[in-house]
Amino acid sequence: MSTIRLTAAQALVRYLAAQKTPEGDSFIAGVWAIFGHGNVAGLGEALYHAQDTLPTYRGHNEQGMAHAAIAYAKASNRRRAMAVTSSIGPGATNMVTAAALAHVNRLPVLLLPGDVFSTRAPDPVLQQVEDFQDGTVSVNDTFRPVSRYFDRIQRPEQLLTALPRAMAVLTDPVECGPVTLAMCQDVQAEAYDWPVSFFKERTLHFRRPAPDADELATAVAAIQAAKKPMIIAGGGVHYSLATDELKSFAEAHNVPVAETQAGKSALPWDHELNLGSVGVTGSSAANAVAEEADLIIAVGTRLQDFTTGSWALFKNPERRILQLNAASYDSGKHNALPLVCDARVGLQALTQKLGGWKAATDGASFRAEWLSALDKATAAPEGGNELPTDAQVIGAVQRASDADTTVVCAAGGLPGELHKLWKTDKPGGYHLEYGYSCMGYEIAGGLGVKMAKPDSEVIVMVGDGSYMMMNSELATSVMMGQKIIVVLLDNRGFGCINRLQMATGGDNFNNLLDDAYHTEPSQIDFAAHAGAMGATSEHVSSIEELGEALERAKASSKSYCVVIDTDPLPSTEAGGHWWDVAVPEVSSRKEVNEARKGYENALADQRLGD
User: Fold this and answer.
1) Could you say which DSSP state residue 542 is in?
2) Which residues have C-beta within 8 Å of that of residue 129, sequence separation ≥ 6?
3) Within a 10 A sphere around the Cβ of 128, how many other Cβ atoms?
4) What top-level class would CATH report for the domain 213-367?
5) What stretch or stretches form a coiled coil here (predicted)?
6) More confident residue, 232 or 522
7) Each residue of 489-532: pLDDT tens digit?
8) Is residue 120 packed enough to be buried (19+ CB in 10 Å), middle (13-18) or exposed (0-12)?
């Protein structure tokens, strides 16, 4: 057997560079790295010599780097991914939040945190957290519950099994998610005689499981028996590259489509069968049809509570759920009829079996009414410089965008408004992280999207609260020449949660800056801050000025930030649905007691286990 002597870090880097997509691209498109004593001498040295085959990118925050890597994978429909390496200690734990985000959203990312010495000779080393009862524990054990595969590399040759397992998880339609290989820092530098064949270029394939014949027959019978079916399209439609098949199925069988946050843009916004968003942040059209539907065909969605209105949205007593999903875990939720398969393959099989069957569902009137409400909500305000709503800002950004624009957002009130109001012309034009609803994802995520889609204009919409959580990768985007446009809506606090606080009977408390404890009023100059990180920036005072600034931003060659003050209270009244947020049973506030009564009434609509 022919061998080559390499350190464990050098072997890891060489192996990653050899993993190719069917199109011939490197599956691991690059490695994000912040070096410290736990990885600079090992992985740092190995990456230095591999810059031509596996580029290294430097960020400013480990969580931000991981967000960028995850966004890259999402924008690539999971066909490509990135790795992220940190030192031990805080560098590693900074990535745990991002790992959870990737886990919830089923997105591939390879995390390579440094770890303690496998020999334990110098214990405790700098940044080592000691467990008084378990000598095998390090802080990297916090990755275990948020990783789809976890391994601690304590010998170089363990990579011979760990790396193929990692690739299998990262490319699997069911198991896809974060992989953590905790790299003991002394092992990174230790040499081993590796089989040369281990580094042979390998083409990865993305499995498309076909449906079981019995499940398919049951699904076809359920669809044929339905009088008012509807489709809920999730992120799995995108990851399966099944948007054309979704469109063909809907048209062939006259089944209207609603979209989750991850599924939005699966159909063009102006398609006659596209009812828009569904659930808590849903359009009035989609939710009206969902309430009456007797069969919900869920395609590639895990049916989280924002999609189902906390399982109170589907009100037809005869309703059934058909779950077309690659994961059996998702297919069996709420006594659904399972159709465990790839979305593209499953839709093709259903279309073939259904032949000329068509549904009688008609959502045209609901759709027309909704589009009218949408246009009204996003129209430019009349008369002066009153604080605009989020919806009016979205309208201005929409008017400045074209079919090749990708809008990026994550948490707070903006995702709800965008889910309802943003119009997407083609797949991938809408990039929201809402599975984990992680504040701080937006700017780093926008950078990752731009790297995956360099020809797309990437517009990041972010609130002031989320911007303050994490903004450092704006400087990274400038440094790397990866231009993004940031539209920062300043409503002076956490406006979304303030509205929720009020809706559940609470008083304004600790959400808006003016309602939080302070001895001096907050006076943050966001435009100056963005400018200090190298972006071109400006503050505008009206929707009209925002439109003009966006034209300047589009013409700019580097990242551009436009700040606008907004009203924290209004949200789009049309559409939407109840969401289960428990209200206290006992309170001295009459508003809370009244909200509790409404909450108890709403609970009666939940259909749990049905």
Assistant:
1) S
2) 89, 138, 139
3) 17
4) alpha beta
5) none
6) 232
7) 999 898 889 998 998 999 999 988 888 888 888 889 999 999 99
8) middle
Q: What angle do CA 201, 202, 207 make, to 5 degrees?
A: 165
Q: How far apart are CA 312 and CA 608, in angstroms?
A: 9
Question: Is beta strand 202-203 parallel, antiparallel or unpaired with respect to 19-20?
Answer: parallel
Among residues 525, 460, 453, 524, the alpha carbon closest in space to that of 486 is found at 460
Q: What is the pLDDT of residue 569?
A: 87
Strands (E) in 144-259, as ranges, are 149-153, 178-184, 191-195, 202-203, 229-233, 257-259
Spatial separation of the C-alpha atoms in residues 364 and 113, rounded to whole Å: 52
Residues 173-209 pLDDT 10s: 999 999 999 999 999 999 999 999 999 999 999 999 9
**379-565 maps to which CATH number?**
3.40.50.970
Element (H, E) at 86: strand 81-86
Task: Spell out the residues 6+ positions from residue 94 whose beta carbon is closer than 8 angstroms to its own.
Answer: 61, 62, 63, 86
Q: Which of 343, 359, 357, 349 shows the shortest CA–CA distance to 216?
A: 349
Q: Tell me, rounded to whole angstroms, the distance of Cα 239 from its chain centroid.
A: 12
Task: Say how many residues make up the chain.
Answer: 610
Q: Are the beta carbons of 81 and 108 closer than 8 angstroms? A: yes
Dihedral angle of Cα 255, 256, 259, 263, to the nearest 10 degrees: 40
d(CA 413, CA 429): 19
What's the N-to-C CA distance of the chain in angstroms? Answer: 59
> Which tokens belong to 21?
């997509």
**Alpha carbon distance 233, 343 (integer Å):** 10
SS3 for 43-60 is HHHHHHCCCCCCCEEECC
Q: Band of the pLDDT at 334, cuts 50, 70, 90?
A: confident
Q: Where are the beta strands (DSSP E) in 449-513?
A: 457-463, 485-490
d(CA 190, CA 156): 7
H or E segment to which residue 84 belongs: strand 81-86
- How far apart, in Å, are the Cα atoms of 463 and each of 94, 489, 571? 22, 5, 14
Topology match between the domains 3-203 and 379-565: yes
3-203 maps to which CATH number? 3.40.50.970
What does the pLDDT average to over 63-84?
Answer: 98
pTM of the predicted protein model:
0.97
For residue 462, the cross-strand partners are 488
CA distances from 5 to 40, 189, 192, 384 (A): 20, 12, 5, 72
Residue for token pair 């040499």: 191
Give the pLDDT confidence of 5-37 residue by residue, as tens digits.
999 999 999 999 999 999 999 999 999 999 999
State how far the Cα of 75 lies from the Cα of 78, in Å rounded to an integer: 8
Computed over every residue of the chain, the mean pLDDT equals 96
Is the per-residue pLDDT at 321 higher than 90? yes
Taking only the tens place, the pLDDT of each residue in 419-457 is 999 999 999 999 999 999 999 999 999 999 999 999 999
Residue-wise pLDDT for 337-373, tens only, equals 999 999 999 999 999 999 999 998 788 899 999 999 9
